[in-house]
Design a protein that fits this description.
Strand order of the largest sheet: 1-2-6-3
Strand content: 5-15%
Helix content: 25-40%
Radius of gyration: 18 Å
Shape: globular
Bound molecules: cobalamin
Order of helices and strands: HEHEHHEHEEEHHHH
Structural class: alpha+beta
Number of strands: 6
Distance between the termini: 53 Å
Number of helices: 9
Length: 236
C-alpha cells in the first residue's frame, strides 16, 4: 500500500484535505494544549479536513449513528487509514477535549486565511471546509508542501459578506465581532439560526456549499453552544 493510496481512500470518503507535518514543526502548538505528551515516538502528525458535502453523504451511507456522528466517523476513518496504509495506530489529538488551535495548524498547511466572518477561507474550497482530525503516527511520512496561494479576499472588491450580514458583526478582516453575531443568532426568530448569510453569499468555493441537512446540523450545534455562553434568561 502506498501513501497516495491512503490519501485516495480518505478522499473517497470526503476527507479531501490531507497534510502530513514533521511533528517538531508544530510541536509548539500541540504542546500549548497538551503539555505532558511525549511527541518523540511520533515523527509525523497528520491534519485532515473535509470540504463540501461528500463527507456528509459518505457518513450517511456508512450508517453512523449517535450524538456526534461527524467526529465519530472522522476518527474511524483516521484509524482505518493509519492501520491499513501505514501499519500503525493513529493517536488522535482532535477531536478531543484538548484545546488545540486547529486554525493555527491549518495556517501552517496554507489552508487557513482569515475572513471578515472570522472563520477561515481556503483558496479552493472557500469557507466550506472544517478540520476533521489531527493525529500522530509512528511512521515517518514525507511532509506535505505548504499550499501557496493568494488570500482569496484580497481580489474580492464587493465584499458581499459585509453588506449581507444583518447583525453588523461582519466588517473588516480581523474585526469580526463574535458576541454581536452570537446575540443575533440565538434570537428565536433569527434568520441566522441555521445558516450564515455572509458565508452563503461568498463566491469562493460556492460549489462546495453544504447540503441543507449538513448546514443545519453544524449550525444547530454551534448555536446551542452560543446559547450557553451568550443566552440570558428563558426563551433565548
Ligand atoms: C469553541 C469554538 C467555537 C465557539 C467560539 C469560541 C470563541 N471564540 O470564544 C463557537 C461555538 C461560537 C464556534 C462557532 C463556530 N465555529 Co468554531 N470552533 C471552536 C473550537 C472547537 C475551539 C476553538 C478554541 O477555543 N481553540 C483553542 C484556542 C487555543 O485556539 P485558537 O485558534 O486561538 O482559538 C480561537 C479561534 O478558534 C476562535 N474561534 C473559534 N470559532 C470561531 C468562530 C469565529 C467566527 C471566530 C471569529 C473565531 C472563532 O476562538 C478561539 C478562542 O479565541 C474550534 C476547533 C479548534 N480546536 O480549533 C472550532 C472552529 C474554529 N470553528 C469552526 C467553525 C466552522 C465554526 C462555525 C462556522 C460552525 C457553524 N457551522 O456554526 C461557527 C461560526 C460562528 C458564527 N459566526 O456563526 C471551524 C473553523 C473552520 C474554518 N473553515 O475556519 C473550527 C476550526 C472547527 C473545525 N472542526 O474545523 N466555534
Amino acid at each position: 500500500m502506498s501513501i497516495s493510496q491512503g490519501i485516495q481512500f480518505l478522499k473517497s470518503r470526503g476527507i479531501n484535505l490531507f497534510h502530513a507535518f514533521d511533528t517538531p514543526d508544530i510541536a509548539g502548538i500541540i504542546g500549548n494544549a497538551v503539555p505532558d505528551l511525549d511527541l518523540n515516538p511520533y515523527p509525523t502528525t497528520v491534519l485532515t479536513a473535509h470540504a463540501g458535502f461528500k463527507f456528509w453523504q459518505s457518513m450517511k451511507q456508512a450508517g453512523i449513528q449517535g450524538d456526534d456522528p461527524v467526529d465519530q466517523y472522522s476518527v474511524l476513518l483516521a484509524q482505518e487509514y493509519a492501520e491499513r496504509f501505514l501499519n500503525c495506530e493513529a493517536k488522535i489529538l482532535y477531536p478531543s477535549d484538548y484545546p488545540i488551535s486547529l486554525m493555527s495548524i491549518g495556517e501552517k498547511a496554507g489552508w487557513n486565511y482569515v475572513t471578515p466572518m472570522g472563520i477561515s477561507i481556503h483558496p479552493s474550497y472557500g469557507t466550506w471546509f472544517a478540520y476533521r482530525t489531527l493525529f500522530l503516527v509512528k511512521t515517518q511520512l514525507t511532509p506535505t508542501p505548504r499550499l501557496v496561494a493568494e488570500h482569496p479576499c484580497e481580489s474580492c472588491m464587493d465584499k458581499p459578506c459585509q453588506t449581507v450580514c444583518p447583525s453588523g458583526a461582519v466588517t473588516e478582516i480581523g474585526s469580526f465581532n463574535l458576541e454581536t453575531c452570537a446575540r443575533y443568532r440565538i434570537r428565536d426568530d433569527s434568520p441566522c439560526s441555521y445558516q450564515c448569510q455572509s458565508r452563503n453569499i461568498c463566491p469562493v468555493g460556492a460549489q462546495y456549499r453544504y447540503v441543507p441537512e449538513q448546514m443545519k446540523y453544524h449550525y444547530r450545534r454551534s448555536r446551542n453552544t452560543m446559547k450557553r455562553y451568550f443566552g440570558s434568561g428563558a426563551g433565548n
